[in-house]
Design brief:
The protein is mainly alpha-helical. It has two domains: 71 residues, Arc Repressor Mutant, subunit A; 139 residues, Up-down Bundle (Four Helix Bundle (Hemerythrin (Met), subunit A)), CATH 1.20.120. Helices cover 64% and strands 5% of the residues. The strands form two sheets. A two-stranded antiparallel ribbon has the order 1-2. A two-stranded antiparallel sheet has the order 3-4. β1 and β2 form a beta hairpin. One of its GO terms (molecular function) is DNA-binding transcription factor activity.
Amino acid sequence: MTSTAESLRTPASVHERIRHKIVRNEIPPGRRVNIDSLARELGVSQTPIREALQRLEGENLVIRERGRGYATTELLTEAQLQHMFEVRMLLEPWACRVVAVDRAGNPGPALLTLVDEFESEHADVCARIDLAAHDTEFHTLIHASTANEFLSRSLAGLHAQANLFRLYGHDIDSVSTLTEHRDVAQAIADCDGSAAEEAMRTHLLRSLDRYLPALRGEAPNDFVAPPPARIR
């Protein structure tokens, strides 16, 4: 039987743990990635660290510079963020339509449960870092439910980069995010493909509007843990 310590050292786990550190801003954007330090911290050799960084490069969370090793990617520019959302607008509304009409594998009830549980666990306040984790889980469930591996891989890095802005912006409204998630989940649960598609399109457009302030002089140069955001 594999021990807990051993399971944390598998290639997949090493990748997830480093990805987790980047998305949660423990390794901020534009910072050099110290392979030796990560190997010591995670209790593994450099080989799985390098393998994980190669995967993260494919997700656009790190970049490799010739002769200098890896660094986390910088936050996107406003134009890049808009272009990234254009790609998401092409793929995610379609994904919602696909899963909504699949009555056998419909993820709507599970998506509604995610929203209910998050609201229950954060009845008064919600740290933005927790909302980012919920957002990732919500969207990932939709992507996975399409059973389209190419779509899931394509969206994984895009979504992770988008959530970095949630940690930097001052005016990210968790009330709106959860309301929009509930609208998407309910439309999927109702097996209404058109409504699900439109709900996701609306959610993405409004999300972009909430992210843009982080690119317009309203975000700190260095990460400072933001105050909790009220969700009720």
